[in-house]
Structure formats: structure tokens, C-alpha cells
Amino acid sequence: DVQLVESGGGSVQAGGSLRLSCVISGIYTYGYSMGWFRDHPGKPREKIACIMGDDTSTYADSVKGRFTISRDDDKSSLYLQMDNLQPEDTATYSCAADEIKCSTYGMEYGGKGTQVTVS
To answer: 90: pLDDT confidence band, cut at 50, 70 and 90?
Structure first.
């Protein structure tokens, strides 16, 4: 079975930082497209950062310049460094992986998420 497990969430004051990690088991992540997504009650799911198999990355405008996505395929891991967090960043953050695409919905594999609360 393929599993994605997120960690690193928590509560932080506005302006603070958090680093999320996602450990993937059951697949080799080399060449996979991977991304971070967030869900907040009452709002549409948001694709906030993607990193493709060739290491190119893209970001939602809402997090550009504040968040950085990275990957370590030797450790089958995905990371999200979040700086200058704001209350509107409060959400459940989850990671996902797909052999080809990085899309808001329909990724092959996804995790259950970790809660980030900014006050």
C-alpha cells in the first residue's frame, strides 16, 4: 500500500514559520509530481505548491514568496517551508503525489493532512 503521512503542523503566531514534512512509502518518488494542498471549512480546496519530476516548482499567488516546496527523493519525502504565516493560512494541509500531474483533484495518492493554525 502507498501511504503519505504529513507532520509538522501546529499553532503559530502571525509572522511565524512552520516546516511541513510528508513521508511517502510504497513508491519510489523519483520522477513523480508532488504537491501541497490545503482545505479550510467553507472554502474550495486550494493547490498551493507543486514540484514536478524535473524539480520545477509552482506556487499559488496566495503563498508565493512566503512558502517553499522541496523534495528529497532519497528519503521519499516532500517538504513545505512556510514563512510569514498569516491567519488566512489556517487550514488542513495535505500532500499528494502523481506520476504525471499536479492538480487540485485527482492525484493518485494523498495523505490525510496536518492542521496549521495561525493566530
So the answer is: very high
Largest distance between two CA atoms of the chain: 38
Identify which of 56, 39, 54 has the alpha carbon closest to the alpha carbon of residue 95: 39
**Is residue 23 packed enough to be buried (19+ CB in 10 Å), middle (13-18) or exposed (0-12)?**
middle
Residue 72 to residue 1: CA distance in whole angstroms? 20
Q: How far apart are CA 1 and CA 83, in angstroms?
A: 33
Position 26: which residue type?
G
All cell numbers assigned to 68: 517553499
Higher pLDDT, 110 or 42: 110
CA 18/CA 33 separation, integer angstroms: 23
